[in-house]
Amino acid sequence: MSGYAIPQTRKPPRASKRQVQLVANGDLRLSANQKCWPEQEKMEQLLRRALADVGYELVRAHPYKEAEKHGFISSQREGIQVFAGVDPAAPLIVAEAVWQYSHHLLPGLVSHSGPLLTCANWSGTWPVLVGMLNLNGSLTKAGVRYSTIWSENFADEFFRDYLMRWLKDGHAKHKTPHVIKWKDVQVGSKERKLGDALADQLRREKTIMGVFDEGCMGMFNAIIPDALLNPLGVFKERLSQSTLYYETTQVPDEEARAVRRWMEERGTKFKTGPNELEDLTDAQVHQQCKTYIAALRLADDFGCQTIGIRYQQGLKDLLPASGRAEGALNNADRPPVRSRDGARVLYEGEPLPHFNEVDECSGLDALMTNRIHKAMGQPVETTLHDLRWGDVDRSGTVPDYVWVFEISGAAPPAHFINGWAGAVSERQPPMYFRLGGGTVKGVSKPGEIVWSRIYIDDGELRMDMGRAGVVELPMEETQRRWDATTPQWPIMHAVTYGVTRDQMMARHKANHIQVAYANSADEADKVLLVKAAMADALGIKVAVCGTKKNGKGWA
């Protein structure tokens, strides 16, 4: 009898004591990786110099790929191959200057036993902070211990002090005194009673979340396991994007033309041109109007109270971007769509809350927000945004640090200055959206908002929330911020009350942040308390961040 063939596992070489390994994760789309590579290269040079200044060598764990013209890990398969050659006990930096697909790295990071640091350059050029926050949220959900840092030039004292602590101790923390546990928050009996009642209604009556394919762009943090979601009374209807594509092809042309006419009659502009590859074309807009109709009909078919379209990947090869449809769905005042038999207007007079990039944590948040705002007589429109970037206001209009909240789709025109008349549709960036499609671009109106984020930590649902104000900046400053990020996308100028830039980055566990307006500062404070009470009654662990507008605390 012959012996067994014992497999030989390849062991990676050991790193020296003064070496730190580096991995750079990227997109699945070659066009994005190629266009974004120069920023990554510049960032790595600065980081390498910073490590050398304190006596460490930064060693890339994978090479630049000459044939592909970039040095990113661009698939889960490649990530697994790269980590087979990484010393699992050595210090490792995930260095990011771009949007990245977290699932490329997770197989390697969950088994990495050495010190782990996620690191980003403070820039809006590409969605780098968005990418790092997504990875942080994914690592948190996966139970992986990590540290995280960011810098504009990797030479500032804040960065250097944190880096030295990480190199010395293998882990470093940021101070987060802005976070208040729910048990310490003062809440009135009326707000607590309403939150409890809304939670009880959701659990008893139950509702359906329509999910058009899970796991968009590697966002592991955006998937809520059924075992956590179902006890809240929320159940997924798992739908295929191929169904959405087919349904889109069945919409009559005249119905799609009526949707566009409705928008144009209210003042929306479509910046169209003749070149399919670079311009927004009339044909692309027409297909987007069909997708809007198809999404409403499918949601109605299955009784969904909120839906999320994955779009990337898959649907991007079949249809123009879903962003325009998403923004309209999130608006109460929107083009009417009748059922197939013409007997009913679907979801008449109200939004069908849509969670961009099928981020189920935002979907649950949107569902709760919609019900709370209805009950309290507040504006019902809500959306997620990317926590994209931030800067001081160089116009001098406000003294505060002003965040740039931006998203490729989903922003409702009700959030914009002048509503539908303030909305402009421009072609989505070709490197992300090959088949084009228009955005719902606008500048968010000044006002009071509640921001929030649901995430998963230690196997349980958690929610952070806080208050912020949306400020109006001069168009020159707004354009500067657009030019520094993605000028085709809707923008919100947000000032978070009692939460600094670095506190937000240290605490936030996701690329997305949910926002909704209230009618006044006092009403926004009450909305936050009802939302926190509802979440707590549902079994979600709640933290309130920062202060009220007047600087007073919540405790």
Write the layout of secondary structure elements.
Blueprint: E1 19-23, H1 30-53, E2 57-60, H2 76-83, E3 92-96, H3 106-109, E4 116-121, H4 128-142, E5 147-151, H5 157-169, E6 179-181, H6 189-205, E7 207-212, H7 226-229, E8 234-239, H8 241-249, H9 253-265, E9 269-270, H10 282-302, E10 306-309, H11 323-329, H12 360-376, E11 382-392, E12 401-406, E13 424-425, E14 447-457, E15 460-470, H13 475-483, E16 491-496, H14 501-507, E17 512-518, H15 521-537, E18 541-545
Parallel strand pairs: 1-2, 1-3, 3-4, 4-5, 7-8, 7-10, 9-13, 15-18
Antiparallel strand pairs: 6-18, 11-12, 11-17, 12-16, 14-15, 14-17, 15-16
Helix pairs in contact: 6-15, 8-10, 9-10, 10-11, 12-15
The shape, in one word, is globular
Number of alpha- plus pi-helical segments: 15
Strand fraction equals 15-25%
Question: Spans of 5+ residues with little confidence (pLDDT < 50)?
Answer: none
**Helical fraction:** 25-40%
Main sheet summary: 6 strands, antiparallel, barrel
Write up this protein:
The chain is α/β, with parallel strands linked by helices and 555 residues long. The chain contains 15 helices and 18 strands. Helix 7 links the parallel strand 7 and strand 8 (234-239). Helix 6 crosses helix 15 (521-537) and helix 9 crosses helix 10 (282-302). The termini are far apart.
Summary of the model, kept short:
By secondary structure, the protein is of the alpha/beta class.
Features of the shown structure:
555 residues; 18 strands; 5-stranded parallel β-sheet; alpha/beta
